[in-house]
Specification:
132 residues, 7 helices, 0% strand
């Protein structure tokens, strides 16, 4: 049963990571495919660059949330799978999303979400180092 649970966690983590929030927000609310502008990546940075601050913040928070959610899957499903495994899988999902023909973003915000859920102190120190 645990092997099946772990397989489900890994698949869920990949699909969660694959949700292209930059594409959803861009096409859904701005009628713009961010892949055709700026760097061409499906990520928060290109969304900020292409669609502005409001859309960029929404995509940033959404990408962070999907990394954090993936890390929490083993706890939610009562598994002994190490929390970083689904976090890493979500990062791969963001970089190579099945829902966007395997062309995603650089996974910085999703990786930040993994750190946020796994080690909030490391996340805070990382943000402070970035800001400095």
């Amino acid at each position: 049963m645990n092997v099946l649970t772990n397989a489900i966690i890994i698949l869920l983590a990949y699909f969660i990571g694959s949700i292209p929030f930059a594409l959803v927000i861009g096409k859904g609310f701005y009628k713009t495919d961010v892949r055709k502008h700026g760097s061409g990546n499906l990520g928060a940075t290109n969304t900020f660059r292409t669609l502005g601050k409001k859309a960029g913040i929404i995509v940033l928070i959404s990408d962070i949330a999907k990394g954090s959610l993936a890390v929490c899957l083993p706890l939610m499903m009562n598994s002994h799978l190490h929390m970083l495994v689904p976090g890493f899988i979500a990062i791969l999902g963001h970089s190579y999303p099945v829902f966007a023909k395997f062309k995603g973003g650089k996974s910085v915000a999703t990786a930040a979400g993994v750190f946020l859920a796994f080690s909030p102190l490391a996340f805070i120190l990382g943000v402070l180092a970035f800001l400095i």
